[in-house]
Amino acid sequence: MPKNSEGKDIAEVNPKKCSGCQACVGECPVGCIDIEDGVAKITAEKCIGCGKCVMVCPSDAILFDKPIKKKVVKPAEFVESGIAAYKGVAVFIEVKDGVAADVSWELVGKGRELAHKLNTNVMGFLVGHNVKSIAAEAISYGCDSVYVLDNSAFETYVSRVYGAALTELCRQVKPEVFLIGASSLGRDLSSVIATQLQTGLTADCTGLDVDPQEKLLMMTRPTFGGNIMATIYCRNHRPQMSTVRPKVFKMPKRDPARTGEIIPFKYDNVVEPLIEILETIKMDTANLVDITHSQVLVVVGKGACDSKNFQMLEELAALLGGSVACSRPLVEAGLLPYVRQVGQTGKTVAPKLYIGIGVSGAVQHMVGMQGSEKVMAINNDKNAQMVQVADYSIIGDYVKVVPELIKGLKARIPNIQTQGAQQ
User: Are 89 and 120 in contact (CB under 8 A)?
Assistant: First the structure.
């Protein structure tokens, strides 16, 4: 193990494993870690050998052999606080217009992973009206049981009504973990529940795991303006609550043969809403491009911020059967609408193919596309973070590179169409 000039054991980074995610930068208490050329670098003379960077590194890129001391809750404290009574991973099943949101099933899939590590079960919390079929669907996606609050009062979402009902459900069922999709509804609802339960809430998480020693939920999210990643614990309150954006986790496979328990939850004290809904007007979304459902995305970054070349990029996306998206600078410049923005303040996407054109790879953007299956970068800066993490990179001027790609694709269009028909 390496040592500094004072003889203290210090951590070291394996550059081949480091992804440059910056989780260690945010965790280091003495600020001895920087990112250089997309890889973490530890300043030996500043390192105090605490090992905190090792605990948060998602790729096991930091080496440190010295035993790490962790604060562990004593059994007596655990029981006295009432935390021991909380068991299970609960997922809120969001329903809109009689259809469950995909993010709910994504969280059920992740919930199964967490439940396995906690040696517990997965519960669905379903609120709505005439939702029996959705309860059965929740079982098929991985829930062991589903608690159903079915009432005409829940036909339309109102935060006060839903919040009071789910708060009571949490108090009676006592889940140790409660996951909610970070949709507009979920963000509103989660804050109401967390406030009433007086527990912690970590919003817009990009990673969830279980601490192997303390069995606490590890909730990772961008912080400090998105420049670093932080892993957050909720030690002293339950449930441990987290919201997660759509497309962060993979959709699990549905198994119609799965069996589970559907439990009607008796709830007679429906609170009166403070508002009256007079009319619901549905927005016409027929002509809107939803980049979260695109299998191929051509993403325009600051390095390609020139509207005269957009037609060329649209053509590339069309040939691949995809859509054009962008990073934040394009929206700020008024060149593309906000609905096309990928990133922390935009949308989270998980296409089969992501092509970043002139995208530098800032952390705020990376957290929005980390679920992409294959990543291709076109950039004239070989040291750009996006180039470092991409599966394939082309170093050069996109104005020259993209026309060559289009030319090659047009020559292979018959083959592309055949492959598409087979898939």
Answer: yes
Q: What are the residue ranges spanned by the domains of the chain?
A: 12-63, 81-264, 291-422
**Would you call 4 exposed, middle or buried from its count of C-beta atoms within 10 A (0-12, 13-18, 19+)?**
middle
345-399, pLDDT tens digit by residue?
Answer: 888 898 999 999 999 988 888 888 888 999 999 999 988 989 988 999 999 999 9
CA 287-292-296 angle, 5° bins: 90
pTM here is: 0.68
Task: Say how far apart CA 41 and CA 14 lie, in whole Å.
Answer: 10
Q: What does the alpha-carbon distance between residue 203 and residue 200 come to, in Å, rounded to a whole number?
A: 10
CATH of 291-422, one of 3.40.50.1220, 3.40.630.30, 3.65.10.10, 3.30.565.10: 3.40.50.1220
**How big, in percent rounded to 5, are the helix, strand and coil portions of the chain?**
35, 25, 45
CA separation for the pair 197, 353 (Å, rounded): 42
| Topology annotation, domain 12-63 | Alpha-Beta Plaits (3.30.70)
